[in-house]
Amino acid sequence: MTPGAPDPLSGRVAFVAGASRGIGATVARHLAAAGASVAVAARSEVLGKLPGTIGSVAAQINDAGGQALPVACDVTSESSVQNAVDATVAEFGGIDILVANAGVLWLGPIETTPLKRWQLCLDVNLTGVFLVTRAVIPHVRARGGGSLIAVTTTGVGMTDSGANAYWVSKAAAERLYLGLAADLRGDNVAVNCLSPSRVVLTEGWQAGGAGMQIPPEMVEPPEAMGRAAVLLATQDASGITGTVQRSEELTP
Ligand code: NAP
């Protein structure tokens, strides 16, 4: 942010799904630093095997002078998503921005993919995006415009590298968002996909990255996604919409 410049997201409300750790937590912090009130949404209310809870991320933001609300949310549950969106609107008065970031990773080859892993990827990475998006649309429309962002992956385009449940679920989410951009243009809502340009070594990646060794030049700092999400969050349908963006290309 330029010193002295007004906060670009001042007065806006952002709902970040999957914000208890990793990229979502970083994005939530960046949106708050840009002036947005942020709903920190995920399942972890108490500390589990992985670090980070919705309460700890929201507390960090509030301690830094921002505004954040922890909201329990399982993106695979219609009622849980609705309750989380309702709690956000009750606290902050509306929603202008969605970052549909909640995701699970499964990179195993199709032949050795258990059905439950396939279904989990589709449930979280596709149905989860559908449920949170469907729940926030009426609120964003009521504000006269806003910005929806789905977090996807460069793996969608890697058709020379095989297939896995993760890439397939993210490809479907991209199709959902590209079409939705056209549907919501008349409502002044920007709809875009955003992915890291390279690998972000988050807790989720370390746990589910199939033991892959990532060379240092392929590693991206989480802040790149934070900056890119802020830029996309400031859009409406008169700006960037209907696109798939990469963090380091969008905000070099
Ligand atoms: P992460 O560290 O595993 O964090 C995943 C987040 O999603 C957590 O906050 C987790 O919270 C939440 N989540 C998982 N299942 C959920 C559910 N059913 N309901 C609500 N929240 C749920 O992963 P990450 O690496 O930060 O990835 C974040 C996003 O970026 C994902 O969509 C991922 O596919 C995408 N991405 C990451 C990379 C990378 O290099 N890391 C590259 C491309 C794309 P709870 O467990 O508390 O629910």
Automatic annotation (TrEMBL):
Concerning Gene3D superfamilies, the annotation shows: NAD(P)-binding Rossmann-like Domain
Could you give a GO molecular-function term held by this entry?
Answer: oxidoreductase activity
InterPro entries attached to this UniProt entry: NAD(P)-bd_dom_sf, SDR_fam
> Pfam families this protein is in?
adh_short (PF00106)
Could you list this entry's UniProt keywords, alphabetically sorted.
Oxidoreductase
Please indicate if the UniProt record lists Oxidoreductase as a keyword. Answer: yes
Q: Does the keyword Oxidoreductase apply?
A: yes
UniProt record similarity statement: Belongs to the short-chain dehydrogenases/reductases (SDR) family.
Record's protein name: Short-chain dehydrogenase
Organism encoding this protein? Mycolicibacterium arabiense
